[in-house]
Each structure stands twice: as structure tokens, then as C-alpha cells.
Amino acid sequence: MDITDLTPLERHIWRAFPRGVAIDVCPDESEDPATIQGAERTVRAEVIRALLLGSSSEPGEAPALRVAGAKITGVLDLRHAEIHHPIRLTSCHFQHSLELDGTHARQLDFSGSCLPALAATSLRVDGALRLTNCRVAGSVQLSNAVITSGIFLDHARLGNDGEWALRLDHASVGADVRARGLVALGGIRLSTAHVAGAVDLEDAQVKNANGDALDAARLTVGTVLNAGGLTTEGRIRLTGAKVAGWISFIEAKLSNPGGVALGISSCEATQLTLRDAQPVSGDVKMHYASFKVIEAAPQVWPATVRLEGLTYEALAPRLPAADRLALLQRDADGFVPHSYEQLAASYRRVGDDADARTVQLAKQRRRRGTLPWYAKLWGYIQDATVGYGFRPTRAGGWLLALLLLGSAAYGTHHPPPVEHGKGPGLNAPIYTLDLLLPIIDFGQQNAFAPTGVFQWLSYLLIAVGWVLATTVAAGVTRTLSRQ
Length: 483
Hints:
Elements: H1 8-16, E1 22-24, E2 42-44, H2 45-53, E3 65-68, E4 71-73, E5 76-77, E6 87-90, E7 93-94, E8 98-99, E9 104-105, E10 108-109, E11 114-115, E12 118-119, E13 124-125, E14 129-130, E15 135-136, E16 140-141, E17 146-147, E18 151-152, E19 157-158, E20 164-167, E21 172-173, E22 177-178, E23 183-185, E24 187-189, E25 194-195, E26 199-200, E27 205-215, E28 220-221, E29 225-226, E30 231-237, E31 242-243, E32 246-248, E33 253-263, E34 268-273, E35 281-285, E36 290-295, E37 305-306, E38 314-316, H3 321-329, H4 337-349, H5 353-368, H6 373-386, H7 393-412, H8 428-436, H9 453-482
Parallel strand pairs: 1-3, 2-4, 3-6, 4-7, 5-8, 6-10, 8-12, 9-13, 10-14, 11-15, 12-16, 13-17, 14-18, 15-19, 16-20, 17-21, 18-22, 19-23, 20-24, 21-25, 22-26, 23-27, 24-27, 25-28, 26-29, 27-30, 28-31, 29-32, 30-33, 32-34, 33-35, 34-36, 35-37, 36-38
Helix pairs in contact: 3-4, 3-5, 4-5, 5-6, 6-9, 7-8, 7-9
């Protein structure tokens, strides 16, 4: 390009580029880039392209394009170009979409700029990509991108209610993806991406009510996924995601009424926290997810959850079992034995055997509802007598009550001996114990033969004794099998 064809601003930029000098034509730092007017602040995209793809340099200098506050007309098409110099076009207004598909650049900074769209599929950046405070009317397409030093989208505004406002699927980021305060009118797609550092969506707002607000299926994160204060309309999908540290939804507001609001099936992380989050509006799916700690108050969870295969070591905050059991009752899959076992194990792990037994008892009662009538009847008997073996003191109570009943009955109405003049004398309490305890023989039961109503009482004591013995044995067996 002949330098004589350039406008004064373009000539100024052309001469500053070989030395990396910054050109700032912003009259006011608070100026809205969308309002940039005047030929004196206009730069043609073809001039920038020619400058970046040329070989202009000066000895001892580091060329760089550093322009702030310009209006860039025409299409800046750098597709599949090799650009060896840093690009810093900040607080600029781009008339047309920025085309960076397949581009290999050293460093890109478009902070504070206004763009119709950014097409950068398979982009490679050896440094960082900065879109802080940007306004992009359409979408930012970064699928299959390789960004070495991180992506910065803090306080950017993307999308126009399309399906995707930001696409980073299959991308590889060597540091963090930071998008604090991001506003996205459309979904964010991070599926199958690899982020070596953190994904930071603190205080972001994402709206995609008819689809996925955040699709991070099979995402790999090297440190943490911070979504504290995140507000979403649409599904959050973390299916198969692996996060080395914690996943945080502290003070988040997740909403997808009538659908799945939080899907984290087969997800793995050290900790999942929803501390101080608002109640989730929509379903939660946690099939086969795995965490060391889950931190959430009971009121955070919605009316419908799916917990089959979920594993964890501890729950926070520490609450009585009664406060946690209501969630298991709301499982859309019905009775899920594994969920009760996980909850009981978490209490045993911290030495709270009483709450662990409470959970196990609740499991047996829930299971009873799935059984045929005759099994339900036996279940009710076990529950009433010894609480399925998890309330063994009940057996002692029943035994003492029946012992007093039998002692009073047979103490006032002695049963006749089987053989007169032979056998031991009647001892009413010992005789009653002999009837109640099916294994121990005190020599009283076979020595006397009660009649009438007292004979029926003896039958009742024998039957109840066998029931108590059987239910206690079943409870002991269950206890030993869990050790």
C-alpha cells in the first residue's frame, strides 16, 4: 500500500507501528466506542491488515499495533494469517465482524471495544486474548482455539439472545478463563474444553432460557470452577466435567423452571458448594457424580432431584439426619438404596452412629413401600418391635413389659404342674422368661401346663419371643454386614 494514500491518522499509525508506539485518539476515557464519529478517527481495516502482514520494522525496536479509540471501517480479515506482533486495539469501534479463523497471533487485546461479532475458530494465541469490557452484538466463536496465557472477558457483554453468545468448545487454554461480571444473552459453551487454570464466572449473568446457559460437558479444569454469584436462565450442564479443585455456586441463582437447572451427572471435583445460594428453580441431576464434600443447606435443593450413584465423603453444614432425609424422599427415581447408604456412611465417617442408624431405619421404611403386602406386614412388625434392628432398646422395653405382664398373670394364677409332686416349684418371672426366650431353657416351661386364657397368654409370649429374637438377629446381621 502506498503511504501517500493514507489519511493523517493512518499515516500516524503506520509510522508508530515499527517502534510499538501507542496511538490514543480517545478524547474522553468514559466515551462509548459505539458513538465514535469523524473522519479524523477512522482507520480502514485494509490498512491495518497490510500493516500487520507486512515486514515493517526498525533496528532495535519491537513492532506492535497499539491503537485506542479509533473507528475501524471495512472487514478486518486476518483469517489463517501468521502475525508476529502484539495487537492492541482497545476502546475501538469495529464496523464489521472481526475475522480471525485459523489465525496465529502473538497477543490480542480488544478490551473496551465494540464489535458486531468475533469469528475466531481454531485461533492460536501465544499470549493472552483480552476482551475485557467488550461489547459484542453477536457471538464470540473460539471453538478449537489454543490460547496460551488465558482469556479475559471481565464485564464484557456478548450476544443477542442467540443460541450461543460464547463458544469455547474443544478449546485449550494454558491459564485461566476469567469472565467476572460477564453478561451473555445466549449460552456459554465450554464442552470438551481443557483449561489448565481456573474458570471464573463470578457474578456473571447468562440468559438462554430455551437451551443451555452453560454447556461444560466433559470440561477439564486444572484448579477451580468459580461460579459464585452466577445468575442463569437455562440449563447448566457439567456432565462428565473434571475439576481438580472445587466447583462453587456460592450465592448463585440458578433457574430453568420445567427443566433441568443443574445437571452434574458423572462430574468429579474435590468439593461442590452452593453455600448461601438461592433455591434452585428447576431439577437437579447428580447421577454418578463424585465429590469429597458437598456443601449446601437443605432448602437450596428443588422439589425434584436425581441422586442415583452419587458419591461423597462428607456433607456441610453438619445437620441432623432428619434434616437431610427429606431430599432423598424427593428423588424422581423413587427408592434409591445407594443414596441412603451414602448418607449413612457420611455420618459413620464422622463417628455419628446415632444419625447413621436413623438413616438406615429410614431406608428400611422406604423400602417397605416397594414390597408385597405380606412382606410389608412383617416389616411393620420389625419396625414396631426393634426398629428393624436399629433401635435394639425397644426389644428390652417389650421384654420388660411382657415380663411384668406374665409375672403378674402367673403369679396370681399358678398354672398346674405337668406331673404332680415332680419338677421345680413355680417361679412366675422365670417361667415368663422361659416362654419369652426361645433359646434359653430354665426348666420352667416344660414343668407347667396353663389352661384357658393363660394357655393362650403362654402362646402369645412364645410367639412374641420368637419375633423379638428374629428381628434382633436380623438387625445384628445388617450391622455386622456394614462393618
